[in-house]
Write a structure and sequence with these properties.
The protein has helices at about 15-30, 35-45, 50-55, 60, 70-80, 80-130. Helix 1 runs parallel beside helix 6 and helix 2 (about 35-45) runs antiparallel to helix 6 (about 80-130). Helix content is about 80%, strand content about 0%. The chain is mostly helical.
């Protein structure tokens, strides 16, 4: 198995960080794990520098499973406290948007069920009124 090793990245541009933040935030929210993601990131917040260095330490093994460039971007992103806070904030924003949409859909479904129930009751009593006459 011949594989060329890529250079290890040591810097992350703000555009790359923004793309990674958006991708990770959407991943958590689409899996309906926004709150769990926020809890995980907040609890590991004091260790973000150590976690980033640990990710670089296991990079040769992680390259077998993950895309090396994206893995390095993520490790560099969590190394910076600013990016980590923006990730937490973005997960919270997306989770709120998604929950707002879900609540609106649930409200609409409840209203439809209520209207169907009322229509069925009216239909039932209209038949009874006609048969009583």
């Amino acid at each position: 198995m011949k594989k060329e090793y890529q250079e290890i990245k040591t810097t992350l541009t703000s555009d790359e960080a923004n793309q990674m933040i958006e991708k990770v935030a959407r991943f958590f929210v689409e899996k309906q794990m926004g709150s769990a993601g926020i809890l995980l990131l907040e609890s590991l917040h004091p260790l973000h520098g150590i976690a980033s260095q640990a990710m670089f330490f296991i990079l040769p093994f992680a390259e077998m499973v993950f895309d090396s460039e994206k893995y390095q971007h993520f490790a560099l992103m969590i190394q910076e406290e600013v990016h980590l806070k923006r990730l937490i904030k973005r997960i919270d924003e997306l989770d709120e948007e998604l929950n707002r949409e879900r609540r609106a859909e649930a409200k609409l479904r409840r209203q439809r069920r209520k209207n169907q129930y009322r229509a069925a009751i009216r239909k039932l009593f209209k038949k009874d009124d006609k048969s009583a006459e």
